[in-house]
Amino acid sequence: METLQQDLMNKPVKKLFFHFFFPAVFGMLLMSVNLLLDGIFVGHGVGEVGLAGVNLAAPIFTIILAISLWIGIGGATNFSMAMGEEMADEARSSFTLALAIFTAILGVISIVGYLNLQTVAGWLGANEETLAPTTDYLGVLFALGWVLGLQQLLSIFIRNDGRPMLGMVSLGLTSVVNILLNYVFIFVLDMGVYGAALATILGGVVGVLVFVPHFFNKKVVLNKWRFNWSLPLGRRILAIGFPSLLAESGAFVLVVGYNLSVVAALGTEGVTAFSVINYLHGFMFLAFFGIETAMQPMVSYYHGSKKKAQLKETLALAEKTALILGVTLFVIGYLLAPQLVQLFGVDDPAIVQLAVEGIRLFFIGYLFIGLSFVYMTYFQSVGKVWSATLIIVMRSYIVFLIYLFVLPKVFGVNGIWLTMPIAEMTMAIVIVMFVRKRVKQTLI
């Protein structure tokens, strides 16, 4: 406990930011590798229809992640603010209450979803051809997907408890186990899409087990459990984390919106092409959550301890990092689009062409997306929930859905691919013109 506080109080901001950032971003990328690997193994071992089915089921994975980020970020922000105010018992109570809330919410979703698999598959856009693989994957996610959510929630708290590297180790082992079991279940045991889903879950189990020793470490805050729960504490956790729920749920809206638009315009071929884009997006998009998870412990602590200069420096570092990350991902997508499509074993020339064109247009959005994440995270981490919520609602729902309705009518299929990039560019302009300057003024 004292080591973490001393680091936050005494270490240079730049050194501390990257101490959190690199494990966070690699951890997020490793987490998203699980779904990416499912797509690669299914594409090669099951076929293009199986790949489309897994993509249609993927939004449920997004919902699980959204809930874990909602409760995890909300609880961990309160945890770090409490530590900044030297209130260790409230910090511990934030963890135990967050864990209880997460368990209750995921329990309800799992039961309801498992009892209505075909209905949910239909809502997600499955047709007669893709219904079987979609329900196979959904069945495993609804029954056991809470394991993946628990892994993410524990990772967030343990990072705030001063051990960001442990989260990366957990997610790294998860990916290794997932690779091995995907090969065995799909190519050796011929378990198809069901095997891919099961491999992901069992990898998550290993990842959760990695965290267990942390709670017996005498040098951390979470070596003791407190249950000083209250309704105001629960409300704070839910309110502070709400923008993270909206942000990740926005990914759900994006996937479902794109799937429905592509099905209407191009049929199963279009869904398969978007499956490739969506797998890559799921992998790369979570890198921006790495910036969020790096910023949050620092901003929350500095806000709680009234350190404005450190807050300002953290914000500037996050902006630069988001820009560099966005440019890097765009360049990778533009230059390596054909090779990225080949990873998924797609052979149909029409689908390959659709996917390559889609990647090159869709990845333009990464040039702008980081700015929204930086300012959403800043507002969330200092407890200004409504400001963070407004940014997320605008970018993920209002602006995106308007463009998704309008652009395909104007530009055809290219309009579908350009919907996300233009929505993100619009929000970046709004933030630079109306938000960024005001935030900087408050930190003078």
UniProtKB/TrEMBL annotation:
GO biological process per UniProt: response to antibiotic
InterPro entries from the UniProt entry: MATE_fam, MATE_MepA-like, MATE_MepA_subfamily, MdtK-like
Entry GO MF terms: antiporter activity; xenobiotic transmembrane transporter activity
Membrane topology summary: Multi-pass membrane protein
Superkingdom field: Bacteria
Coarse class of the protein's main subcellular location: membrane
A cellular component term, taken from the record's GO annotations: plasma membrane
Segments traversing the membrane: 16-37, 49-73, 94-117, 137-158, 165-188, 194-216, 237-260, 280-302, 322-341, 361-378, 385-406, 412-435
Keyword Transmembrane appears in the UniProt entry: yes
Record keywords: Antibiotic resistance, Cell membrane, Membrane, Transmembrane, Transmembrane helix, Transport
Cell location: Cell membrane
Family the UniProt entry places it in: Belongs to the multi antimicrobial extrusion (MATE) (TC 2.A.66.1) family. MepA subfamily.
PANTHER family: SPORULATION PROTEIN YKVU (PTHR43823:SF4)
Protein name in UniProt: Multidrug export protein MepA
Lineage of producing organism: Bacteria, Bacillati, Bacillota, Bacilli, Bacillales
